[in-house]
Amino acid sequence: MSTDIAVEVQNLTVSYQAKPALLDVSVKVETDQLVGVIGPNGAGKSTFIKAVLGFVKPDVGKVLINGQDARNARGKVAYVPQRGAVDWDFPITVKEVAMMGRYQEIPWYRNPTKKDQDIAMDALAMVRMTDFAERQIGQLSGGQQQRVFLARALAQGSDILLLDEPFAGVDAATERAILDVLERAKNAGKTLIVVHHDLVTAAEYFDKLILIKQRLYAYGPPTSVLREDLLSEVYEGKLRIFADVLKKERA
Amino acid sequence: MDFLLNAFLAPLQETYFQKALIGGSIVAIVSAVVGCLVVLRRMAFLGDALSHAMIAGVAGGYLVMKLLFGYEAHAPGMLLGSLLAAICTVAMIGFVSRVSRVKEDTAIGIMYTGIFALGVMAVSIFRHYIHIDLMHFIMGDVLGVADTDLWTSAFVAATVLSIIILFFRHFQMTTFDPIMAASIGLPVLLIDYLLTTCVSLVVVSAVSMVGVILVVGLLITPAATAYLLSDRLDRMMMLSALFGFTSVVGGLYLCVWLDSAGGGAIMLFCTLQFLFVLAVAPRYGMLARWLRLRRMVPQPVLEDILTTTYRHGKTATMATFKEFVDGKKHLNRALSQLVANDLLQTEKEGYSLTAAGEKEAEQVLRAHRLWETYLHSIGSPEQEWHETAHHLEHVREEGTIEYLDDVLGHPQQDPHGKEIPAKQP
What we know:
heterodimer, A: alpha/beta, six-stranded mixed β-sheet, four-stranded antiparallel β-sheet, 35% helix, globular, B: mainly alpha, ABC transporter involved in vitamin B12 uptake, BtuC, 3 domains, two-stranded antiparallel sheet, 19 helices, 75% helix
């Protein structure tokens, strides 16, 4: 495994008035990894996303994308939105969504070229959605919908993908299908940062986990992050559930 | 024949009708195209707000041009004034909903009525300087389109359509996924303002034709009509433009034939057009929805047919089904679906189960008898067992039956002494 750093967060503090959303967070995400970001509600996960996308101005510290400041690295991180954030009735086809991944490369005065078309179709092929290219996105199953947005992220050509709760609200079979696509993307040399809420599956799905609640509690392989003492500190008072998680983890 | 020809051709020879047709079409087409974005962004109320706010701008523009330069009813001046008033309104709506707990829809309501009121006051106070017919403003007058109005609307239409075509991808992306748009560095806020400006321009040029009250309809109704028919934004815009155009043509004929108000006729036609499409649209229409629902056979009916055939022995006839299966209206479709799925086969006098059908029926029966055993075990009265179990036997998913089987300790017989079929893998 190479040791290049895809995303480097250095002493990042972001605040809203007196309340810090993130406090002194430092993480180095190596390339070709499937990394999960976990933490309770209100832990600053969405601020973390915004910071990596370069939307927020940090109070202190910085976020580097392939060594470049995130705020100047627009389009270097491909974003996959939460299912709930998408208007599935929008008049747009699967192919057009994939094509959106190319928009950052196309100047406003010209149309997408054949090459852009090919890249978009290749991305769809990679997630096995070629047959659905002309479908409106609302007519797909949950897993297919997620795959379309992954194709869009792949078409962007960025090496870093940021996914916001891709497993929220899908059934177990779909969850497996999505994971399969994520792993294929990883094997194709992408770094994936996935915001995830389900601790039970976190250990199984990810190479590394980032546990945050305002500050960084742990970063590393699941076995070193999903420790009883850490989890009880982060998820105060809800330990009973995690006892099972940990048992499962040891088994 | 002559009569028909006359009805359609005679108005076309009148200058006022020609002007109304040209002016109305230009305005309707461009409104319809911009309206698609308005509908998809759920900004319909904004169109209403802008049209009302306009009167303050018109009065202001009129007054300034007259007092400073001595122009009477200077069209570009009034257009600019309207635009400024519209942008002010949008800015104030944004401001109020940002700094207070008042939500956006309320802020829109407050601001547009306030600015409308300001405009009405200005027009009545300065009635000796400016000559604006409030009634005309509110109702519009498509049949009295002046040449300056025509030129203004043609100019507006050309500008707005060029902007939409040039920046189509930008509008599409900021509407569909603003976060991604921002992440690749599109100026999302600027594009929002550009769209608001386009909407304001369109509204301003349309008000003189159909009036303040109806202009929002011209903006959103053709777009909503097209929305029911299209799965792509570019097609939606083209269809919407077509519907805008047909509304004006249809409405104007309606207006001369019935001798009614022009703006009203156009909007009425537009609305009827929408209702028609709503009824018959192939995928998102009501008829299509109704047909889809009708085609769906409820699972209980399918399962009842299988168990009825199973209990009946070899061949079950139509009469048997009619007697034992609820949901008679689905019967024919259910039977053909079961045959198609290879669970039933047709015989001379009726239907019999295939091997797969028999297995399936046994599983339903197993569910039925386990439910009866369960009802017995929780002490419900015997006369209710069958009926309740008949209802519950269709509840089989998510390991329900295995759970019952475990809880009841894998019984071999139901409380009536009948054998419970074994679980099929």
